[in-house]
Request: fold
Amino acid sequence: MATKPEDRRTVRTKKLLRQALLELIEEKGIDRITVRDLTDRAEINRGTFYLHYQDVPDLLDKIKEEVFAGLQAIISRMYIIRLMAETNEDKPYEVIVELFEYLGEHADFFRVLLSPKGDISLALRIKDMMARQMMAKLEIWQPREELMLVSREWLIAYTTSSNIGIIQHWFASGQALSPYEIALVMTRLVKNGPARSINVEHLSPPEK
Amino acid sequence: MATKPEDRRTVRTKKLLRQALLELIEEKGIDRITVRDLTDRAEINRGTFYLHYQDVPDLLDKIKEEVFAGLQAIISRMYIIRLMAETNEDKPYEVIVELFEYLGEHADFFRVLLSPKGDISLALRIKDMMARQMMAKLEIWQPREELMLVSREWLIAYTTSSNIGIIQHWFASGQALSPYEIALVMTRLVKNGPARSINVEHLSPPEK
DNA sequence: CCATTATTCAACACTTTGTCGATTAAAATG
DNA sequence: CATTTTAATCGACAAAGTGTTGAATAATGG
Reply:
């Protein structure tokens, strides 16, 4: 991946456009952003935009690619099944801590793009990464699908989307918890499931 | 809500626009659809569009409102906590069956809008409906938050997004399961959680 | 049948788009 | 430092989309 170092000017232009895009998405949503909006905000010539990108979605795609590589690296080390089956102490699974640390480092990007005004396809791509990883591991660890309560397909759909949901809510909360704390929350939920997490034995049903 | 019955012509126009919009979203995604695209596809005059809607997002909003009412009615009868805490037999929670029946009745709409090319805000709105409902019930059923493994906030983020994930995957699979079957899958996952669903006791770890 | 109203049609000014050639400014190179 | 290379700017362009208008036409409801 060691490509030629880019001209300082193009680096500056791309950086300004990235920043302008994130700001504008937050302000008016991913649609409704024109090339002129971007270049006005970034204070560059409109023609310059077309020297680097085809259109607004293309710019977004290029920016996404930057973070995908790092994300893929972490997710590929994530053994959700190991988390489910092995870890017994009340400690967060380390790779999940790393995941949230990485997300936090690129918070300006993820906070905007995983928000309601962001880009649905980003969340889907992350989900897809997790799903592939999980399917590969699951086929080895539990080859007898008939022993499972639900088939792999549905378990994966369930788990990946709940994980994304926790990530999205973490940013929506303004990253209220530390990577360690939120990883612990996720670990507990995955290991115990939602039902046991409410502590059924101590419920106070209104009338019963 | 018993408003004046609409002129046949406006009913026809709105129906054609709805159909055209869903087709075009599927073909080219929610962005990139122009008013001209819509009116060409619907075979109506471009000016007619503006007699009913302000712009493309406005049309989408109006169409969404149609199904929200019905959805809200079902979700308000959904006691996810009851599902978690009470039901012990291996039967799907009835309200979830109803939910999937309703989704199936409006499959043309949900299939497109919950897909990758669809509208992120629809899924978020449904999640929000579920979250409000769940928070209200949870505060009554488990007033002592400190007894829970994770706080209400995170439990709700986890549960609602996993539910949306199952719904999205159901449409992505071409509604491969019946409402009863998919409701059973969801019931099992919510009650047992992902970890127990893989049947940990019978795992075959590669080397261990 | 008639009054009402939705739709059509052509036209309007305006914005955005994508591209282009010529010019200017900055960076890389030796 | 001087020279070459390349990025950015500028103005202009046709094409397409936007949102609105007023007059003509057609369908509807009573």
Q: What stands out?
A: The mean pLDDT of chain B is 90. Chain B touches chain A through 59 residues (CB under 8 Å). The radius of gyration of chain B is 21 Å. Chain B has two domains: 8-53, 58-192.
